[in-house]
Structures are given as C-alpha cells and as structure tokens.
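TICKET #2291
ISSUE: user wants both folds in one file
ATTACHMENT 1:
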Amino acid sequence: MSSDAIGSATKPLNSFTHVEAAGWGRGLSTLLRITRMNLRHPWQVAFAIGSTLVAVILQLLIPKLLGQAVDQTQTAIRGGVTGAAAEQALWISALLLLAVSALRGLVTMMQNYFAEAVGHHVAYELRLACYEKIQRLSFSFHDHVHSGDLITIGLLDLEGVRMYFSTALVRALLLTMLIGIGAYMLISTDPVLGLVALSFVPFVAWRSSVTQLRLRATWLDLQERVSVLSRVMEENLGGIRVVRAFAAQAYEMLKFDRASKSALDLAHDRVDIYVPNTSAMTLSFFFAMGLVLWIGGNKIIAGEISVGTLATFLTFMTILQMPVRQIGLMVNAFARASTCGSRLFGLLDQDITIRDAPDARPLEISEGTLRFDNVSFAYPSTETRPIVKNINFEARRGETIAIVGPPGSGKSTMAHLIPRFYDVIEGAITLDGQDIRKVTLATLRKAVAVVQQDAFLFTTTIENNIAYGDPWAKEQRIERASESAQLHNYILGLPAGYETVVGERGVSLSGGQRQRLTIARTMMLRPSVVVFDDSTAAIDAATEQRIRAAMRRFAKERVTIIIAHRLSSLMHADQILFVDNGEIVERGTHEELLAKRGRYKALYDLQMRSE
C-alpha cells in the first residue's frame, strides 16, 4: 500500500522527537484520518462492534439474573418449598447464570479478536507505507534526520496508532452503553439507591482521566529518553571497534548509564503518579459500596426493596468498577493516537523532492554522452553558499574523467548529482541530450552506477552482496566481476567460498576487501555511466593497478568518472578536472596539467615526495 494513498496532505516535518501539543482541530483531523483507515476493513469492524453490543447486553443481564436468583431463593424459603423443587430452581438459576457468563466471555473474546485484527491490519499497511516512504525520500531528508528517530516512529508511534481502534473506539462504545444503559436500569429501579451506586463513577472517571493524561505527558518524555537511549546503543554497536581500540568502554558505559538512569527516574515518577491515584479510586469505590449496603439494608428492612434488588445493585457496581477505571485508558488512547498519528503522518506526508516529473520518459541511451552544462548546486541547509558552481564538461562513451581537489571542494557532490541523489539548482546535466530531471528515476539509476567511498555491505553471503543489483545473475558472471575486482582468489580461500556470510556492514572484511566487493557489485551491472567516488582509497597501490587494468575493457563501453585523492589512481584519465571551492580551476590531461605548473603540479610533487 502506497504512502500517498494513506495521506494526501503535504506538511513539513520539523522534528520527529519533539511534538508540540496539537490543537483540537489538528488532533481531531488526525483521529478522523486514523478512523477512516480502520473503516477500510469493514467486516472486521462490523464483527468487533456487533460483538461489543452483544457483550454489553449479556454483561447487564448478569446482575439482573443474580438478583432474580436471590429473590427466587428467598421466596422458596419463605414459602416452605424445600427438597427437589428448591434444588431444581437453584440449578436452573445457576446454569442460566453460567450460560450467560460463558456466552459473554465468548463474545468478549470475539470482540477483542476482531478489534485487534483491525489494528494489526492498519499497522501492517502503515509499516509498509513508512518503509516505502523512507526508501523514496531524498538524500537531503536523510542528511538531517537520525535513523534512531525513524525507528522510533516505525515502532512506538505506529503502535500508538495500532491500538487506537481497540483501546479507544471500541472501549468508548462499550463504556457508553454499559454506563448509560446500566445507569438507566438502576435509577429506574430505585432513584436514590441508583444515584448512590453510581456516585463513585464521576470521581473515578475524573481521577482516571487526570492520571492517564499525566502519565501520557510523561510517556512522551519517556519515549524521547528511550529514543536517546536507542541512539546511544546504536552508535556504540556501530562503532564497537573504535570503542575497543581507544579503550573507551568506561566512557561509553557512563554515557549509557546516564541515558538509562534518566529513563529510570522518569519511570519512578510515573509510579508515583499511578499508585496514589489508583488507591484513591479504589477507596471511592468501596466507600460507595458501603453506602449502598447501608442505605439498601435499611430499605430492605423497611420493605421498600428486596434482597435480590440489593444484590443486583452490588453486582452491577462490581462489574462497573473496572470499565469505569478504563475511562482514563480510553482518554489516554485518544491522546496517544492523536500525538503518535501526528508524528507518523508527518513522516508519511513528507514531500518527496527527488521524484519523476509528470511528463518523465524512460532514458534512452544511444551515444552515451554525459554533459554538465553550467551546473550549480547548494544543499538546503547552505543555500546561500553554493557547493558546486558553474561546472562545465563533457564525457563520451569510452572516456574517463578524473576529478581531484582538496577535501570539501565539491567532488562527491558532483558525483551525487549525476544519478539525481540531489537536483541541481542552476544549469543542467544531460545524457545524450536528455535532461536527467525529465527522465524516470528508475531508468536513470539503471544507467548510472556510483561506487561509494563508504563501502556498505549487507549481512548476507558474499555472493548475494555482489549480485545485489541483479539477484538472478549466473555464478559465472558473479565470479568474473569478482576476478576483475581482484577478489576471486581471496573468496576461494574462505571455508564457505562465495557462501561466506559477512558480518554487519561487512565488519568481518578489511576496508580494502569491502571496497573491492562494492566494485565487483558495480561491475556486475551494465551502466552507461559509472562513478568511482574515492572507492579505492583503502586498496593498496599494486592491487589498484591490477583492478584498473581489468577495468579498461569494462570502461570501453561507458563513461567513467573517477574521484580520488591519490593521483596515481587517475593519471591515465582522458581529462582531469581540478576542483576547488566548487569550481573547476584547472583541466587537461596528466601531462598537460604538469606542464601548466599549477595546483595539480604542486599536488603531484607533494605526493611524489611523500612516496
């Protein structure tokens, strides 16, 4: 299910972890939106509501039947009925009560089952929608959002929305009918005793709501602290080798202990809120029950009501005690769904900045010519300072363009513009004369492959990592790609060969092996443009030369862009661009740039002296 189908409005998401109290209008709009999602499963909703109505009727029958049984027993005793007749009457009353109670339990089970089914169906749809949205959101979004916050939304907030139908809507229906019909039955039987029996309801409802709303406020704070805790743990696990290398276990433990203690302190505060209020609600219930016993006993003595009637009142109060306490849970469920829904829909309603144009067409490659035409770009957070300015160059099929320059000069940004990870703000990038903003993303990214500097690997086999771009590739093709990346012999030396499972993010491989594996992954494909973004930095010079030799045949049929700091990696390029402050300050072949005796020559001399 697409995220666009779930939400139509487009609103900016300012923060995932700090949610201001939504106004009544926005909160109501969020709840209505969740309700509409629940109603997309009509037969489960119908069964849940129908079961609730039947359960309420059966639950209200129990006090009535119990009262009648007590009166029936008293009548039999007063009338001198004994032996088999009295026993038969008792058996009939007991079996009737048992049958109604069993039926009520069965119907309540159906109510809970179908109510939970609706919530889980909605959660399934939202889970897929969130995951799909995250896949489609641009790099500029992920640049400023922590992954731990996204995980919190996909787990805790989604859970708050999931529970809305069963703990808010169905519970509201059940409590309304149970209290409304029950109160009418009691007051119509005896107004004074009915009001006394119901006297604890307003107090318990008030204290329960206040308690749950206070717990709700602290729950939001607790959720934020748990989110911080998960970020600390996630970063520690991701950098566990760095922690060990710097013997920083004590510091990391202190940092985790502080975050954990913060969550524990708030948990204690929640206990301090919950226990006194629960005790007060229990006291009010037993106080009301005592009054009913006292007043009802006097009425029995005066002959105004029967013992069975008093038993009916007391049984109804006992039945009503727990549902009334759940009023607070119901209020909390509405509040939680409103807040969690706002955060969740804030993600789903995010505008996708990098998307297919309405008139986008598939990219058609003929000559395979890549062209930068006066291209400029600035990140959203630095719009006043362009990272790339007035870039112009052309590369034809079979040509290699090398980009070199100091750190932060805009080299990697230029690489990320080609597959439209970001969109240019001025100028255009074209492939065979087709503006990449006017072709479909699927065909563009099939034609452009970027080998990232950060060699990310999945926790699966080496074979699956290499064949990630084409999972159905034949083994011979996978092996040829790994041979070209100078990785085949190493893999054969492993106990499980290509079936060896690499650790999380490829931690079981060295940096150079990870980079070679990502190169093999790219060489598995047949892109028209391949970009190597400093992808051989962790590979030794001799292995790199063998990889370059193997790639000459690979490069004949496509444009190759090489970004590197090590000049030996790019001296063979047809054209070298020296970039500084986002602009091309020198261009030419290796020999031409040496002859100019400019920035490139100074960098070359510096590296040669170092070597």
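ATTACHMENT 2:
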Amino acid sequence: MTNGENAGTANSDEKLSNVKKISIGLQSPDRKVRKQAFLDLQGYLSNENAEFSNQDLRSIFVEIHIYVLNGLRDKVENVREQAIKFVNFLIIEKLPLNDYYLTYVLPVLVERIGTVELIEESEEIRLQILQLLDAIITKYSHTAQLVPFLNDCVTILAETVKDKYPTIKELSCRTVIKLAEALPRDFHKQAETLVKPVITCFYHQRYKVRVEAVYAVGEIVMHSSYKALEEAVTPLAEKLFDQIPAVRRAVAQVAARWLMEYRDRYSFFHKILPLLLTGLNDEVLETRMEAAKLWEQAGLQYQQENEKDFKDEIDYLIQPPKYYPDNVLRPNIGCRGLVKRNVLKIAPGIANELTSWQEDIRLRCAQLLCAVALHAESDITQNLQVLLVAMYSAARDDDHRVVSNIERASEIIGCFVKCDTWSELMVPLVEDGPHYGHLTVLKGLIRGSPREYFAPYVENICKVLSEDFICCSRKNKYQVELIECVKALAEKHDNGTEGEAGYCLFKISTSVFALKHADNAEKIRDSDVMDRLKDCLKLESVQELYDLYAGRLLRHVNRNPELWTIVSEEECLFLSLLSHVNEAFGRNLDVIGEILSLSLDTQCDAESRLKIFYVLAGVFENKEAVFGRAENRAEFLEKLVQDVFVPSLVWHAGATAEAIRTMAASCLRSALLPLDGVELFTAETLRPVRDKLLPLLTSLLEDASYRSRETAVDCLVLLKENCHRTGIWEIGDFVSVYPEVLKRLDDPTDRVRICALRNLPFILKNVPEIFKDLTYRSHHELIVDTLMIHFDDDDEAIQKLVKNALESMVEINKKELLNKIERHKPLLRNQKGCEEFLESLEGLRITEIK
C-alpha cells in the first residue's frame, strides 16, 4: 500500500470515527441531545472542508443507519422531525443513486405511514415523511434502482391519499402521478390498486384535493387495464357537476387525454366522450373554450387515424348542410365521426339520466344531449324514440336551465331528422292526450325543422292540436307551451288562408285566450298571437281573422247551450268570441241569437246567465262596430228582447234572481241605445217589443235593488225615444209610464231620484199631441204639483234638475204651469229659484210675442 493510499485510509477512518462519536448522542435518553445529534451529523457531513467520497458515505450509512432510522420512530415529535430532515439530507443530497440505501429507508416509511393502523400520529410528521418519499421518487425517477420499491411506494400512497389531512391528500395525488412518470414501464403492475383510494379524494371538501385526485386517476387509468377505466368513469362523471370550475376543467383535460392516448380507447369512446362533450356547455367561458380546443384536437387525431373512412367526406362534403343552425360552427369531421359511431351507446345513458332525481345530473345530461344531437346530426334518428320519451319528462323539469337545453336539443333534432320520422313518433302521443312536456318538445322540433320540408305537415299537426280535448285546457304551463306551438306553426305556414291550418290555429288561440290561467296574464299576450296569425295568413288586419273564422267557431261551440255553466269550455269560448268579434258579430246574428236564446233561458244556470249578460252588455256598448253592417238586426233584436230580456225581467225571489234582473236591464239599456245613422228597430219589430217591455219595466221600478230601479228608468226613456222615432209612441204608453217615473222622485236612494229627475225631461219631450189637450189637465197638474214639492229640496243639484223638468212642461201646458207656480210660491222656501224660473218664463213669453 502506497503512502497516499495509507493517508486516504487513515482519513476515512478518522471521518468514520468522528461520525460514530456524534452518533452516540442518537442513543441518549435526553431528547435534546438526540435532536442535537442529528443537527451535528448534518453539519459535519455538509462541512465544505471535509470531502466525503461515495465509499466514505456508504461506510458512514452502514454504521449509523440503524440509529438514524430509529429516530423516525422516536417518541418525541421534534426528534422525529429532525430525523426526517437528516434522512432527506443524507439520501437525497449526499448519497449517490443506489437501491442499497432504499432497502433500509423505505420499509421504515411504510411502517410509519403505509399501514391501515395509524402509527404516526402527527399530521406534520406524516406530511414530511410523504415529502421525503416524493423526493426519493423524483431522484430515482427512470432508474432501475426504484423498480424493486414500486410496491412499497404504492402501499404508502394507497394509505396517504385517505389521510384526514388535506395537504397530505393533495401531495399524495401529485406523488402518484410522479411515480407513474418515474416508472412508465412498471407502474401498470400496481396501478389498479390505487384507483379506489384516489377516488375517495373526489368527495373531499377542498377543491384542490379534488382537482389533484382527478389528474391522478387520469394518470392511473393510462397505465391500467380496462377495469380501472370502468371503475373510474362514473365517479369522474360526477365531478362534472362540481361547483368549482377548476375541477370540471380537470375532468375535461383527463377525458381529452384518454380520447387521444389511452391504448384501448376505441373500445371505450362511448364512456369517455360524455366527459368531454359535457364541458362544451359549461357555465364558465374558460372551461368551454378549453374543452372545445381539446375536443377539436381529439377529433382531428381521430380523423387522421381513420383517414380512409372519411376520405369521401373530406373530399366532397366540405360545405355544411343547407339548413344548418345559424350562429353554430360545425364540428370537424373527426368530432362528428366519433359521436356518430358511438351515439347508439351514448343515447340510452342520456335518456336514463335525464330523469335522474339529482338536479345537476339532469342539467348536464340535457346539455350533453344538445352536444350529441349537434354532432350526430341525422344519425341520431335511430335513437330518437328512446330519447324523446326522456325529453318529454325533462321538459317538465322545475329547473328552467334543463328545459332550455331540452328546447335547444329539440330544435337541433328538428333540423337534422326528417319531419316524417319525428312526426310519426310525436303525433300519436299528442293525439292520445299530451302534457306540456310533449308540447315543449314539439315546439322545438317545429322551430328547428326547415320551412321548406315542414310546410306539408303544418295542417295535419294543426288539426291534431285543435281537437277540443287538446286545446281546451286550463293548466297554466300547458297553455303557454300550446301558444308557443301556435307561434312556431305560424312561422312555418305559407299557404295563406288555404286549407284548414288557419282555422285550426285560430281555434287553438281563441280557446287558450278564453280559458287563460291567471298566472298567464303576462306570458300570453292575445294581440301578439293574433298579429302573428294575421301575418302568416297574409291578412290585412286581425278583424279579418274573426270575419273568416268566427262564424265557424261559433257554430262549433253551439252545443247544448242550455246546459252551460260558468266553467263550461263552450261558454268561455263563446264569451271570448263575443268580446272580440266586433263586425263579425253582425255577420253571425243567426247563430249568436240562437245561442243567446238557449243559454239565457230562465231554466239555465243562474251564474252562467249573469256572466253572459255582463259580456253582452259590453258588446252592445260598441254597437256601431257590431251592427253597423249587419243584416236582419231588427229581427235579431226583437228575438233577443222577446226570448231573453222579457223572461229575465220577470220578478223571482232571491238575490241571484235580483242580480240577473239588474244585469238584464243593463244589457237591455245598451241594446236600446240609439246608433247614429243606423235604425236598429222598425215599427213592426218594435211594437211587440214595446208591448211586452213596458209593463215589465214599470214593475221593475219597484224592485228591491236600487240599481234595477235606476236602470229601469233609463230603459223606459230609451224605449220611449225608439218608439217616438218609429212613430208608435201612443198616449196610452205615455200615461202608463210617466206616473211611475214621478213616483221615483220619492225613492229612498238618491241615485234613483237623480236618475228619474235627469230623465223626466226626455219623458215629457215630444209627448203625443193629444196629451196637451185640456182633457188631460189633471195629468198636467199632477206633474207640476209633484215637481214643485221637490223644487224646495235642500240640494241645489236637485233643484236644478227639477227646474229642467218644469221647463219641459212649457210646451205641454204653460198656462197651468204659471198658475201652479204662483200658487206654490208663497209656500216654498226656494223663493229665489221660483223668481228665477218665473223670469225665465217671462223672457220666453216676450220672445214668443215678438
């Protein structure tokens, strides 16, 4: 041995001796001494002046490893912590790569944190031990020395991912990925054992743990058999509903990697595709953009891998279909091909999950359906029956986002699937009695269908929807969707008023308006719907709609009007028509008169009659539009008065009968109102009406209801004016009417008194000439005496009305009027009023003399 070798050996022996001396402190009962010993060892081995060869370090490790590794088991936490730091320093920084060292270290790590039973109680120490393992894997990455310890690493990680400490879980997932990358050729041997432990992290409350777990599972599956993928797909799909965008983005990234890199991906495309396609409709823009980018890459790769299969499409089908949805970028050929070849396997799962009890699952499935329908295009036809059933149910979801996506999916399907195909599936269901889910889907299919192809089917669908049991519904959501169907059909209709479509759409709309639910007052605007119908039928105005179809619809509802109640669909529809027909009323007087005669019979439902009278009164207030161009209006009104008003004005006991009399009188008043330029009655038609009405109206003046008495006065005046205009106002009629009106001046209700006084001048105007003779002087005296009594009323308004009535007597018997006033004047308190009235009469006399 040379001197140099002797010197080197002596130097190594000295280093080893120094280390042994320091290591004695590791066995001390004093915790401070043990901790200080680790610090001294690290300080000695890191001394820059002392160079340690690999052999020196190996010899040192052999001598002290038992004591050092025992430090990992020390009862004192501070000592264990320092021991971990020293092991990390020794193994990672000082010792060279050699599986010899790991042979001693890893079993201790397994012992401390790799067993089911919790050995290391300190969370911080467990984390540091895991960090040590992570550092070892990093240092020994892609080396043969790490291979023998793969099982130990997996054993540790399988336990640490289940640790309660979130930071340990997070690091464990990252370490799993690092281990897979460190041993790419060997990791598959143990990978599957990590699937279940890592999946437990999917449900941790910290989102960073969930994100790392998703990435870890993605890596594990890449190195495992199909069993791992099948085990991971469902939990991974659940993370699509995670509230944190980063988690959903991680799922999309993992799915995209599987689509492009998983060795057996062709067998599992149907399981992987939904994970990425769902991300295309994510709420967060960044997630959608990244998912779209990854999906495009996957599609392009698939296209390249199957270039021969797509050759014709690549070469010839460059332009999108003629009626491709607006504002939608068509996916590339590979993306479409991927979905088309797997839609048979994907569709049943979507259909099943659309009816899930979990709201998030229903939402994501509805979004996924949109993406699948857009990619599959016409290839979704063979799955349509299964999907439609689920879509009907999902369209009734309480979450509007689910419904919105179902509507969108329906429009896409309508765009690509032939009309005869989906109509054969939908129409029979609708004919059996739809719910609003059916109508929601139908609306989407109609909207999506190209007008050119769908136009021939419009009339048939309109006929189905116009059936009474379909269009006459009081359900609020059902009504909204039915009207939306009408709007969609109107957009596709292009035959004007030809065929039955126009009438059917009119009937559906009118039925919904008539039975409209209270909640739909703002959702369904009658004018908007009618304007659309007018435009689609190429009419000038909405009134033309009623002119064309109101008569037919009135004849349709004319079914047993005598049996109607206020909830009868036919009555509601009839009243709705009456409120809107205007000019069309006059063109359908025959059917309207027949319905009114039957429905307002005294034996019919009282509430129903009351409601019809109310609407009819409103119609007569617009008489110019109703009767302006009508034929046979005189016969209609005569029949109406005789068959409806006369029986209804007959007194019957009870509050309901009283209300009907009042309402009938109000309606009669509207009917008797004159119409400028149009004579509603002739002498022949009015005479029998007069004979029957006068006794009834005079008896109504004694009715218990003040409204009836007030209305009766108005009706008598209007009847008198109509009779005078037609030349049949006779002295007997006048003499029987005016005393009854005078009696109302003593009515207990001021409104009736005022009404009587207001109308009395009209009664006294244009009296029959014979009434002015002296033979009727007693009548003149009765009128003046009665008025003079009320001329002394305290109310100035009454006094003024009485004065107007007295002025009407000037033309009848002025002399008697003056005499009576002179006689009554000393007895009245209203001296001023008498003087003013006499002065006005004197002025009148002077004017006459001149």
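RESOLUTION: both attachments delivered.
EXTRA DETAIL ON ATTACHMENT 2: Residues 188 and 223 are 5 Å apart (CA to CA).
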